[in-house]
Amino acid sequence: MTRTMENLLLMALIAALCLGTGVNLAAQGQTATPTSPPPAVAASDKPHGPVPAELTKSLDSKKVKEDDPVSAKVTVELHMRNGGTIPRGSTLMGRVTEAKARSKGDPQSTLGFTFNKLTTPDGKVMEIKGMLVAIGPGTHTGEQAQSGSIGPGMMAGHEGTGTGTTPTPMPNMNQGQQSSAAMLNAQSKGVVGLRNLQLEENGVLTSSGKEVKLDSGTQMIIQIEID
After folding, report:
1. Are 72 and 90 in contact (CB under 8 A)?
2. Which residues contact 149 (CB under 8 A, 6 or more apart)?
3. Nearest Cα to 52, choosing from 129, 112, 114, 135?
4. 91-128 pLDDT tens trace
5. Strand 85-86 vs strand 69-74: parallel, antiparallel, or unpaired?
6. What would the pLDDT profile of 50-93 be if each residue is shown by its tens digit?
7. Whole-model pTM?
8. Which of 70, 82, 102, 152 pairs with 164 at a CA distance of 20 to 30 A?
9. Which domains does the chain have, with CATH numbers?
10. 86: nearest Cα among 95, 75, 78
């Protein structure tokens, strides 16, 4: 056998050994463990629900500007399913998000505001997210419209069976008083008893008039979530 043939046979043997090793490694390799999917994010169970309130200072879209402060007073006592209470007279604090008077280039005037803080009469502060869902004229029926409380179910809590809300009428008002005062309740949506005013889905008020003007004492339903 010539040296050339010996070299060829040696190279073929080396190649066969390498191929065999590769096959063995593949056969002996372990199957990769599949990556576990990330845990599902639990649904939010933060206390939330509609809160009746009254505007504490008038707002005019011709005079206010973005980031100006807005405040409202909670008009009934609220009991949450987690045992917590929001007393009547608590203050909702927020800011103007947009304000525009009607002009030649704009067919309507707009006013938007949100709430981000709730302060109880004893000084407790809660961070919230609050958006206007209903609005009506101010009421002057006296203490009868301001008294009473709303029981468990008005707002959902951590210990509740769900995160929904139970619509509850404003307390201590007979049908005649509710009608004459255009009283809002937890079921109210949009604009009630105010002319030439619309409430958009994003909580912004619009009007074909020169401005959107809200008097002090204007009734509101604020949908809030407590952080």
Report:
1. no
2. 76, 77, 78, 79, 88, 171
3. 135
4. 999 999 999 999 887 889 999 999 999 999 999 999 99
5. unpaired
6. 999 999 999 999 999 999 999 999 999 999 888 889 999 999 99
7. 0.68
8. 70
9. 48-226 (2.40.128)
10. 78
